[in-house]
Each structure stands twice: as structure tokens, then as C-alpha cells.
Write a structure and sequence with these properties.
Blueprint lengths: L2 H19 L7 H6 L6 H12 L2 H14 L4 H24 L4 H8 L2 H33 L6 H49 L2 H8 L13 H17 L1 H8 L4 H32 L4 H4 L4 H8 L3 H39 L5 H23 L5 H15 L1 H9 L5 H17 L3 H6 L2 H4 L4 H18 L5 H4 L4
Helix pairs in contact: 1-8, 1-15, 3-8, 3-11, 3-12, 4-7, 4-12, 4-17, 5-10, 5-12, 6-7, 7-8, 7-15, 7-16, 7-17, 7-19, 8-12, 8-15, 8-16, 9-12, 10-17, 10-18, 14-15, 15-16, 17-19, 17-22, 19-22
Length: about 475
């Protein structure tokens, strides 16, 4: 029997068992959407870490490190910088204690901001889910090269994730993440020193690779570094999945403590991922993986490590991708249920009906994410696109809700709309025809973020200030 297949089967059965164990405890809307607001700091740390480190890091970040070396950590560093500020936001978010980011947008601004927030989140989170399907499909193809194509793998992973996510909601997702987080941490940290030894030690890796692989910017310009840093930082600051975890916390203290553990874990694991990819580029500078560098972690595990450790690493990567897909599929489903169905269609819906609709939304959004995955070439490019939509459209107004009392509802609506519009149209033929190349050659994050921030500040200053009732929940 293929030992990799056996490990993937064990992981799948274990995750299913954890998920099913939470079903009987999921009886109300609050149970499904925010785990009954009962998650302790220990569980929060691992579910936050598991939702953050997925295919964006394991595929996109690893591909970047394979090509450019440790300069790829500019993308990770954006998240670390965001976490420093999040430490001060976490207790405020738990105190607010709603269900979704659009809840926050309506409470602070108005219904229009809520609806536009839902639209931006749907674009972002289904895009993120889509490249988790790509990552899972890649692993299944590596394990079963003659049996499963990469596209067939996407279908299998999509079905798997949709079922898991629909079963028990946030409670299921959070407790699966504890198992996955422990597995991934042990596998990554255990594999790295073995790979360094196999590559001839640190000196062997240095001799095999260009000097730029070990420089702060490497072969990137400062602008390119910032194009990696800013979207990640701003996604982190406004990440709805994160806020839902804070809304799910047992207390404000648990929310704050979880950020400390999350920061430490993110730095350790993302540096380890980059280091494994860089070591992999020294071990496999040419050949099959050179044409598909996003597969470098799993490829290295299968072709360089001792078999038992390689199996462990591939299984951990697989589980991590499943975890992130669960989180980012579940989050927009809660938006459609809480911010559209309950808010505008069935205000008095029973808990049973809400749970049925919630699971239906998971299925529909999962199919949409699958469609996107079948039409995506680059995980890195797709991840930066998704991050930019969220960064420009939502992060400024979310932070303003907590930190700038002068922000007005009109300004928030215009900021969200313009940030989304600039991002999704930046690569269009119209923009490239009517603007100079010096602008269009840049990633969308700069024009989208500047447009969003400028409109937020300007319109806030020329419109009447918000009322005391709008500010009260954020005091």
C-alpha cells in the first residue's frame, strides 16, 4: 500500500472524527457561527495559526522562496507587523462580540457598508479557498501521479472540504485546527535540520545558490518587497476569519493571549517554510519541480527526506491546506447567512432553519471556489489579488472603526466601493490603455489602497461626524 496514501487516509479520518464529535454540540446560530463564544486561548492560538498559514504560505510563499530566497519573507513579515497591532485590537473585538465583519460595519457605519463588505469578503475569501483546492490537488497528484490528475485532485479536495466545513461550523473548524497545528509544527521543525544536513549544511546551501537568496531584498526592488508586505499586513489587520475567532473567544483575556501565541507560531513556521523551500532549491535546482516550484515543500519531502519523515511532512502540508480551506470557506458562508439571510430575508428564522441554510451556503460557495481553482495558474498571483481586495476595501474602514472617531458612514461606503473597484479593474485593458506604464506595471495594492485611504479621510472631513450611538459600541 502507498504509505503516503495511508497517512492521508488517517489524517482524513481523524479530522472527520473530530468534526463529527462537535455535531451534537452545535444546536444554535451562535454555536455554528462562533462556537458558542467558548474557545479558550490554547484553541484560539492553533485555529488562528492554522487559518493563516495555508496554501498562500505553503505554495505561494514557498514558490517565492524557491525563486528569490529569503526575500520571500517580506510577504510573511507583513503578517507579523499586523499581529503587533492586532494585540491591541483583539480585546476590543471580543468586547464587541458580534458574528461577522459586516455586523461591525453596520453598527459603526450603515447598512450599505454592510452589504459592500459582504461583497468584498465573498470575492476575497472564495479566491483564497480556491487556491487551497489547488494545493490539495497538487499533493494528491504527487502521491498518485498515474491515478489522479491535478484537476481531479481539486474536485476531490473541494468535496472533502465542503463536507467537513458544513458539518459543525466554527466549533468543528477550531478543534480540527488544534490537531492540524500540532502536526504541522512538528513536521516542519523536524524536517528542516534533516534537509539542511542533506544539502551539505549551511555552507553547502550558500555555495549552491546565488548570494541574493540570503539578502534582505534579494533580487527584488523595494517596491516589489512592499507589494508583498502591504497586502499581507492589511489582510491580517482586517481579516474576518480572525475577528470571528476573537468573537468566539471565551473572554477578552483569552483573545489577547491568543495573539501572543499566534505571533510566535507564525514567525517560527513561516521562517521554517521559507528555509525548507530555499534548501529545496539547493537540492533540486532543475528538473520537474523547477517547472512547478509551488510544489517544492511536498516534492522535497517525497524525494529528499527519509521516507517516514517525508510522509509526515506531506501529511502535515495536506492537513494544513485542508484547515485553511475550511476556515476561508466557512467565513463567507456566515456572511451570506448572518448578513443577508437573517438580516434581510428571514429575521425570525429558527435555529434549525439557520443551520440548514448555513450548510447550503457552504456547498454553494465551495462550488464557486472550485470553479475559480480550475481557472487559476499562479497561486502567488491569486493570493496577492485576494489580499489586495480585502486590504484596500475593508481594512481601512475596520481599523477606522476602532481608532478614528471622525470616520463617517458616507466615507466608509465610498472607501469600500473604490478600493474594491480599483483592485478588480487594475489589470483591465482599459486601465492599461489610458494610464502610463510606470503606473500600470505596479501591483494593484498601491493605487487601490491610496484611493481607499484618500477617500476615507477626505469624505470623513467634509461630512457631518458620526453620532454618539454609532461610536458607543467601540468606546
Amino acid at each position: 500500500m502507498n504509505p503516503y496514501a495511508a497517512v492521508l487516509a488517517v489524517i482524513s479520518i481523524t479530522l472527520l472524527a473530530v468534526s463529527l464529535s462537535r455535531v451534537n454540540k452545535t444546536k444554535t446560530k451562535a454555536d455554528y457561527l462562533v462556537a458558542g463564544r467558548s474557545l479558550p486561548a490554547f484553541v484560539l492560538i492553533f485555529t488562528l495559526l492554522s487559518s493563516w498559514i495555508g496554501s498562500g504560505s505553503l505554495l505561494g510563499g514557498a514558490e517565492n522562496a524557491y525563486k528569490h530566497g529569503f526575500a520571500a519573507l517580506w510577504q510573511s513579515a507583513g503578517g507579523w507587523a499586523g499581529l503587533i497591532l492586532i494585540y491591541f485590537i483583539a480585546p476590543r473585538a471580543r468586547k464587541f462580540a458580534q458574528f461577522t465583519i459586516p455586523d461591525l460595519l453596520e453598527a459603526r457605519y450603515n447598512q450599505t457598508a454592510r452589504v459592500l463588505g459582504v461583497i468584498a469578503i465573498l470575492f476575497t475569501y472564495t479566491a483564497i479557498t480556491s487556491y487551497q483546492f489547488i494545493g490539495g490537488g497538487d499533493i494528491l497528484h504527487l502521491v498518485f501521479p498515474e491515478l489522479i490528475t491535478a484537476d481531479l485532485g481539486k474536485y476531490i479536495i473541494a468535496a472533502f472540504v465542503i463536507v467537513f466545513t458544513a458539518i459543525a461550523g466554527m466549533s468543528s473548524v477550531a478543534y480540527m485546527d488544534v490537531v492540524i497545528g500540532l502536526l504541522a509544527t512538528a513536521a516542519l521543525l523536524g524536517s528542516l535540520p534533516v534537509l539542511i544536513h542533506l544539502a551539505g549544511g549551511l555552507s553547502g546551501i550558500h555555495n549552491a545558490l546565488p548570494a541574493t537568496h540570503f539578502q534582505v531584498l534579494g533580487d527584488l526592488t523595494l517596491a516589489q518587497g512592499l507589494e508583498l508586505f502591504l497586502p499581507t499586513c492589511l489582510l491580517m489587520l482586517g481579516n474576518q476569519s480572525m475577528y470571528q475567532k476573537f468573537f468566539s473567544a471565551r473572554s477578552e483575556k483569552d483573545a489577547s493571549r491568543s495573539v501572543i501565541g499566534w505571533f510566535i507560531g507564525a514567525v517560527i513556521l513561516e521562517v521554517a517554510i521559507a528555509a525548507i523551500a530555499v534548501t529545496g532549491s539547493a537540492l533540486f535546482p532543475t528538473g520537474e519541480v523547477h517547472a512547478h516550484p509551488r510544489e517544492i515543500l511536498a516534492y522535497t519531502g517525497m524525494n529528499a527526506l527519509p521516507k517516514w519523515l517525508g510522509i509526515f511532512l506531506v501529511g502535515a502540508i495536506f492537513a494544513k491546506i485542508i484547515s485553511t480551506a475550511n476556515n476561508y470557506l466557512f467565513s463567507p458562508a456566515t456572511n451570506l447567512v448572518n448578513d443577508v439571510f437573517v438580516r434581510y430575508i428571514a429575521r425570525d428564522a429558527s435555529n434549525k432553519r439557520i443551520l440548514i441554510v448555513s450548510r447550503l451556503m457552504v456547498v454553494l460557495l465551495g462550488l464557486w471556489a472550485l470553479y475559480q481553482s480550475l481557472h487559476t495558474e499562479s497561486v502567488l498571483k491569486k493570493s496577492l489579488y485576494a489580499y489586495t481586495i480585502y486590504s484596500a476595501a475593508l481594512t481601512p474602514v475596520i481599523l477606522a472603526a476602532f481608532f478614528w472617531k471622525r470616520t463617517t458612514a458616507t466615507a466608509a461606503v465610498i472607501s469600500i466601493a473604490l478600493g474594491t473597484l480599483v483592485t478588480i479593474t487594475w489589470d483591465s485593458a482599459f486601465i492599461h490603455t489610458h494610464l502610463p506604464a510606470i503606473l500600470t506595471d505596479r501591483d494593484a495594492i498601491f493605487p487601490a489602497l491610496l484611493t481607499s485611504l484618500f477617500s476615507l479621510v477626505l469624505v470623513s472631513l467634509i461630512t457631518p461626524p458620526p453620532s454618539a450611538s454609532q461610536l458607543a459600541p467601540f468606546a
